[in-house]
User: Which sequence fits this backbone?
């Protein structure tokens, strides 16, 4: 069945595991995906400015086998510098190029980048966060730090589930929507969590310690 894709740039909430679902969508729209040299699908630990430049250069090349090229990028985090580098490419994408940018939460991206894309919603596009946000907000600082341990169980930042962490922060933000004065630490964590070299543990600890008890 046709999915009715609109536009050349799509943002998808998900992880690298979402790539096969994007390929399913392409097949449903009549695109051959088996061994197709015009499909570029890649997972990045962090998407930096050099990756943005490479993607721009690739998008300027002509299709090899067909009339259109497809770029599927999955990353848990995209640096602000990389997003700014992508803006021109996504603002005026080549007519024969389509982009699918997969991140844990599209709202973590710059508004200027989001405005140049269509949100492609998938039924499975967001995993449930592992922490009860209502209980988190009612807990003491020490209890909150203990509750964060499942999100921080891996010692290295680049091995942690950034998608799950971003979903948790988004859920906290929704609960505190009527208390904007309580959102500063959450905004800060959301802003920097996807940057290359971001220190995830201190950012989450600040959320635990600075967000007022509700």
Assistant:
């Amino acid at each position: 069945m046709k999915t009715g894709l609109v536009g050349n740039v799509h943002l998808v909430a998900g992880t690298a595991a979402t790539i096969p679902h994007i390929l399913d969508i392409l097949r449903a729209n009549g695109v051959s995906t088996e061994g197709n040299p015009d499909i570029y699908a890649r997972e990045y630990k962090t998407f930096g400015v050099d990756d943005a430049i490479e993607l721009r250069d690739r998008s300027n090349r002509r299709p090899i086998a067909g009339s259109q090229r497809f770029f599927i990028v999955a990353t848990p985090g995209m640096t602000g510098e990389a997003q700014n580098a992508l803006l021109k490419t996504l603002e005026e994408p080549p007519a024969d190029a389509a982009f699918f940018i997969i991140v844990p939460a599209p709202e973590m991206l710059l508004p200027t980048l989001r405005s140049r894309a269509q949100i492609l919603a998938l039924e499975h596009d967001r995993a449930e966060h592992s922490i009860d946000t209502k209980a988190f907000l009612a807990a003491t600082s020490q209890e909150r730090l203990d509750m964060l341990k499942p999100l921080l169980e891996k010692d290295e930042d680049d091995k942690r589930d950034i998608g799950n962490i971003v979903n948790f922060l988004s859920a906290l933000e929704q609960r505190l929507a009527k208390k904007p004065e309580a959102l500063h630490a959450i905004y800060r964590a959301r802003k920097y969590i996807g940057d290359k070299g971001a220190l995830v543990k201190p950012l989450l600890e600040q959320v635990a310690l600075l967000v007022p008890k509700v």
About this structure: The CA atoms of residues 156 and 187 lie 23 Å apart. The two ends are 47 Å apart (CA to CA). The first strand starts at residue 9 and ends at 13. The mean pLDDT is 86.
